[in-house]
Amino acid sequence: MDKKKVSKNAIAIVVGLVALAVFPVLSGNPYYIHLVETIMIYAILLFGLDIVVGYTGQVSLGHAGLFGVGAYTAGVLFMKLGMPFYLTAPLSIVVTAAFGAVLALPALRVSGPYLAMVTLAFGTIIQILINEMDFLTSGPLGIKIPKPSFGGGAPMNETQYYWLVAALLVVSLVVVHRVLKSHLGRAFEALRDSPVASDCMGVSVYRYKVYAFVISAGFAGLAGCLYSYSEQYISPNTYNFELTILFLLAIIMGGRKTRLGALIGSTIIVMLPKLLDDIDSFRIVATALAALVALGAGYALSRKTVTPRKVAVPVAGTIGLAAFSYGINTLTDWRLTIFGLMILLVVYYLQDGVVGFVRKFLMHGRVRTVTVDTGKPVEIVADAIVSVRDGGDGKGHDAHDTPILNVRDVVMQFSGLKALNHVDLSVRRGTIHGLIGPNGSGKSTMMNVLTGIYVPTAGAIEYAGQSIVGRTSSGIALSGIARTFQNVQLFGEMTALENVLVGLHHTFRSNFADVGLMSARYRAEEHAARVRAFGMLRFVGLENAAGEEARSLPYGKQRLLEIARALALDPKVLLLDEPAAGLTAPDIKELVTIIRKVRDHGITVVLIEHHMDVVMNVCDTVSVLDFGQKIAEGKPAEIQSDEKVIEAYLGGIAA
Ligand code: ADP
Ligand code: MG
User: Fold this and answer.
1) Is position 111 within any domain?
2) Centre of ligand 2 from the C-alpha of residue 439, in Å
3) TM spans, by residue (predicted)?
4) What pLDDT is stored for residue 241 in this prediction?
5) For residue 43, how far is its CA from the centre of ligand 2 (angstroms)?
């Protein structure tokens, strides 16, 4: 970032903070103060919900329930034990986070619509429990709570409480932002983009989904607690299905993966029902909206940035909405219709929410440039991979000629098909071991078995003398087996540098508190990781693409990026599944150089490849699979002249 931009941001932040602080004084109207207070409380919850929905890509219909748990923890602790705010607030966070864990542990074994159902059931059960547990919650009667008071003084007034909420909003925003920019946030994003690659980079998908739910629940708990003091009365009906939908709507409309989006979304869901209650103000808003959309569409058309077809529907939609608002005096429940229409419009035309839309509009025609601040001149980081290896624990420099991978009599059966049929494979340390064979012969299946994605039906697999059968993918990855995928599995929405940083996740010891407080340990780890990641990119010749989104890289570079990410794991064994597929001739030459360099650093390589020149060029040993069985093994030259291999495989391809 350049200095000018930083100071501009700083000015915006200061202006925003001052406006937030003086609003109650300037407004003086308790109704509006309370309204903004509610917006801020919802925003705190939405910061947390966005971690689950926007970052990890999971649906949660249980957040109204968690909000209720937070509110009732505060309410019950106050009513039964007379606890002050400075105790109820942290306890609300802790109790709700625990409920989040209870929800996550079983719920995250399922995904998609099943997850939606489980979280929905959770929300419903919470509401029923609050209703039925009279002895604790006073059931439908609800609980009355005065505003917090400090040091035995009088309860705070509306303005003072507003400031308390505003301060906690700012703290929440800073903490959430830090967490999402850290290795934790990268883990959340990675598991959404490619769960299988996350696991194979040592980032346990299951564990980080649970973390995301627990952190998210903590914020819901804080929001619930603040809400109970804000309303000064809580009752079970508030925490219903409608509120859960409203929260999701706020994330979708504001835009996922942005804190500003959460603020905008929360403003929309608090203000919209108020506006819709008052038909006249709604007319004004609808008309203004229609005019704005028409204006924007006209501008976009004149600049030829969109096609008329794309403009027609949103313009017709909003103008229709405006017209509709003039003709609906007699309808009783038109609010729901409008909500429905808005959801449709947003889902179809504002997929990245208001923030995403504005960002795209401002960015139009400009290329986004991201510079990578490694904090050190490039020259110093250039040989990161070398220094890592040499300064390491000597892992890669063990004696040659002892097997590092030992596969014995492995069978992998898929219903009727034996993808691997009693295969033995012995990979010697520090060598490049080729694995070839026709399509469907079981090569990728072998890699999936070696990395714990499949558990073999029978047989034994030893890595560095220890069995790895039945261990998790992330555990196997952390013990030193890294891989790439036949169908590239990058974290698409993350930059090239961030992709490699996920591979470096194992170098972090910092926890949530370190990140929230930006401890010295965390800053040192993050800096070291960035330097190393940049070195990895340089190693595969991608240093100039560090700031580019992985999904927008050309295919050949994506394959190289996968190798850099795998190397970040600091592996003893690197499994490459058809790395040259789709590469141009010069890229393949580059690849061969890289594979050799990797081996020279002491890393054992297992290479699946169809390009025979590559295989013959770099491999020390080659094993040939056909119909799940090993039909030959030996030095490249021996394989090339083997009758069985020529018949089964080499005869069919231009070697
Ligand atoms: P290769 O990588 O050598 O081209 P694969 O290992 O991908 O071959 O596949 C070997 C055989 O196993 C193929 O017939 C494939 O259809 C089958 N197979 C692979 N994975 C599965 C799976 N998850 N379920 C069922 N069959 C599978
Ligand atoms: Mg394959």
Assistant:
1) yes
2) 7
3) 9-26, 32-53, 85-105, 112-130, 161-180, 210-230, 282-302, 311-328, 334-358
4) 83
5) 46
443: Cβ below 6 Å to ligand 1?
Answer: yes
Give pLDDT tens digits for 388-417. 434 334 444 445 567 999 999 999 999 989
Distance CA 605, CA 483 (A): 10
Listed residue (318, 325, 323) closest to 344, CA to CA: 318
pLDDT at 11 > cutoff 90: no
Residue found under tokens 């083997």: 642
Residue with CA closest to ligand 1 atom 8? 440
Question: Is residue 439 domain-shared with residue 493, that is, in the same domain?
Answer: yes
Average pLDDT for the chain: 86
Q: Which of 21-35, 218-232, 385-399, 627-641 has the highest mean pLDDT?
A: 218-232
Q: Both 65 and 154 in a single domain?
A: yes
Beta bridge partners of 433: 606, 621
Q: State the CB neighbour count (10 A cutoff) for residue 91.
A: 17
Tell me, in angstroms, the distance from the centre of ligand 2 to residue 440's CA.
7
Which distant-in-sequence residues (6+ apart) come within 8 Å of 13 by Cβ?
A: none
Q: Are residues 57 and 159 in the same domain?
A: yes
* Pocket-testing residue among 410, 412, 415, 417, ligand 1, by greatest number of atoms within 8 A of Cβ: 417
Indicate the number of domains in the chain.
Answer: 3
Q: Per the structure block, which two tokens stand in for 25?
A: 């004084």
The protein residue with its alpha carbon nearest to ligand 1, atom 13, reads 440
